[in-house]
TrEMBL record:
It is found in: Cell membrane. The chain crosses the membrane at residues 21-41, 319-341. Keywords: ATP-binding, Cell membrane, Kinase, Membrane, Nucleotide-binding, Transferase, Transmembrane, Transmembrane helix, Two-component regulatory system. GO terms for cellular component: plasma membrane. It comes from Paenibacillus sonchi. Residues 504-612 form the Histidine kinase domain. The keyword Ubl conjugation does not apply. This is Sensor histidine kinase.
Amino acid sequence: MKKAWAYLIGLSQGILSAKNWLLAYALLILLPVSIMLGTFYQRSNDVLEKEVTRTMQLTLKQAGMNLTYKLNHIRDSSNSVFMNQILYDNLLQKDKITDQLGQIRELRNLAETAQENEDIFRLRFFVEASRMYGGDRINLYPLADMDQYPWYEAVKEAGGGIVWTGVYPEIYNDYGEKKIFSAARLLRNPRDYEEIVGVLVMDVSETLVQEIVSELQFSEKYAPYLLDGRGRLIYGTAGPDGEEPGAEAGSEQEMNQLPEDVLSAISHSEEGVVKRTIGRDNVNVVYTTVGTTGWKLVAQVSEAEISHRATALGQFTSIATLAGITVMFLVLVFVLLMFMIQGVQRRVQMILRMIRKEGIGWLEERRSMPDGDFRLLERSVDHLIHKVNNLVEESYQAKIQEREAQLRTLQAQINPHFLYNALDMINWSAISHNAEDTSEMIEALAQYFRLSLNKGRDNVSIEDELELARVFLEIQQNRFPSTFTFSIQAEPGLESYIIPKLTLQPLVENALLHGIRKTRSKQGTIEISVRLENGDVVLTVADDGIGMDPKQANRLLLEPAAGQQADGMDGSFGLYNVHERIRYFAGNRYGLSIETEPGAGTVVRVSVKAVIKK
């Protein structure tokens, strides 16, 4: 008894422990699946209805094409007889008995030839009773007999065109009663078109239509049928219990005579699907047109029958879906447990590594934390991760500060470099010229330092950088009069972009001192241009000086050269400096590129990310 009670207690505790999983299963699996199955059932109903009606339409269309093919043969046979001169020669009045007997023989031969077509049951000629051959009632009938047929008026209105009749019973003297339908047309005297000499009637057995229509079994309740162009019933097959179409609904008119709105829709299109209501049934009416006659081949199927098929399909699908989702849920639980176990194992390994690194005291200090060992482990790991994040952040900030310090150091190395040259230039100018020139040089030098210092900011606008280059070159023109010219071109709108300060000055200094001043004539031209190219700012400094070896030029960008040049200038250091500062500012894919050849001048391109001044 105690064991049973302990078992029940353990079971209840297990259920309580699993309540979250059961709730998750109900909310995340069972409820969505129920909604999904309901939606699926509705959508499957709609899809199945569309597929059934589409299949019916394709089948009806094929049946209509088969019927059209056979009726075309009958039409061709009728045209062949209608245009045969022998027919008209033997329909005209002749006085001699022998001539009339010859006419009978010719007409019968003509009829027998036409009847060799297996689809044609009988060819009949209706002619005036005054002619002796007009009453044998095998192939020849009195014209007055046509008055008993309701479709005779349509034949007269059609002139010589073919009129297709509906299915009707006909009694033949040599055969008895047979259900047929006919292709009838009026015959006129070719010599006097106003004179009617007879009617050509080509009878076709009902079985030609029956064989095609009887195969169209789409519904257990509604049978297919044929309507003429006015919506009147031409032919209808029996229902499942032998009754005529509409017997089960209680009204043949309700079944086979479509409502006016449905008839109107059918008459204005070759094929399609129209919905109607018969009693309590919502019915899909599928139709197609028989090409030769304009008849409408119609089949019906109720939505209840389609829903019944969808229900049978849905039951199997629902069971399969629930079983599949249950299996997926169990697999999901297994996977989640596996990840949880792996996570705990990974965290335990981290704790062990920390214990080995910092000793057991690292963990003992956190023994006072509540909620069990796993909570202690979780909080310890979180603390460790937080500490590592802080260390990474501190390391990252230290690297940023180091890069900024390097950038400021590189920039600081440039200012003294030009200061010595400027003082030297002022000294030579004071010796070679009057004191007024010295004043001008000092003013230009003041403007240069004002632009280069830029109030302590590391970046300047392109407009200020171009102005600095202009002032520098004007100072150099005073230093080396009549030795070089320069031009500055910039695309409009670039004034709002910024670049590292003192980007152009080292380049134009190299172009002048290491390019133009080392030519034999010591004369040349410096061209400075700025433009936007593929979203980047491209600055170009070109000179027509002595140039250099391309390999040497590439080395100048990779590392600063050891020692100074003979004139006290270290141009290579300037190129390396600018190149590194651009990469610090914009990224490693930016910087300097040099195009040069000995004796062909030098073009230095600076590619900088387009950054708009804030």
